[in-house]
Amino acid sequence: MFRMLSCAAVLASSLTCSLAQAAPAEPPTLTVLSSGGIMGAIREVAPAYEKKFGVKLQVLAAPSMGETPQAIPNRLARAEPADVVLMVGAALDKLVAGGQADKSSRVDLGQSFIAMAVRQGQPKPDISTLQGLRAVLLNSKSVAYSDSASGVYLSKTLFPGMHLGAGFAAKAHMIPAEPVGAVIARGQAEIGFQQLSELKPVKGIDIVGLIPAEAQKMTLYSGAVVSNSQHHAAAQALLDYLASPQADAAIEDSGLKPLPHSRG
């Protein structure tokens, strides 16, 4: 009787081990911290990518820079768990230099350009020339711009170089923690400036167009694996996919310009 019980116990144990070995592993969940400028692209890619590769993507909105707690550098400084960052390339370089992002994983994903928007239904002024843009800035009642890459350029370089006068500073406001388009849609500013890819998803606004070439500044969006990621290989695979021709349509739909691909 004892032998029979022992044998039964061994068989049960073997069966349990076999079942455990046969059970499929849970798909990894990648936490992706994404700046608004490339958020549209990763959200468009996510459903098909998850289905094809069996990876779950948790995409969180996180500005590339700024003082808000949600900003990527501030999240990583608090040691929030994350696997991938998608953000302004220049800001990513600082994370790489500080050891928070893996240099070898870094990929460039798309070019972004600054656009102007008005509240939906309002007249679209002519900003096709530098003179036209200057006139619009001077004549507008209020101006909004972001606290990220485009806003820093506008407030520190473009606007001062256009000699808009002392009164302009009083009506121009940097918007932290939310899309500039949302402020325009609520009627809290007459005109607003941000990356085209950040304005496109906002309802209640009309995009006038890109600011003229001589006033424009291209922002490069890039991605990297967070240094302390627990899913390094899966995170790198996502970045490689985003940098491949398979993601070009999503990159372009979001308002970014895809980068050329080298022929293998």
Automatic annotation (TrEMBL):
Cell wall biogenesis/degradation as UniProt keyword: no
Signal peptide as annotated in the record: 1-22
GO molecular function: molybdate ion binding
InterPro entries in the cross-refs: ModA/WtpA
GO biological process entries: molybdate ion transport
Keyword line: Signal
Highest taxon of the lineage: Bacteria
SUPFAM superfamilies in the cross-refs: Periplasmic binding protein-like II
KW Membrane (keyword) present: no
Protein name: Substrate-binding domain-containing protein
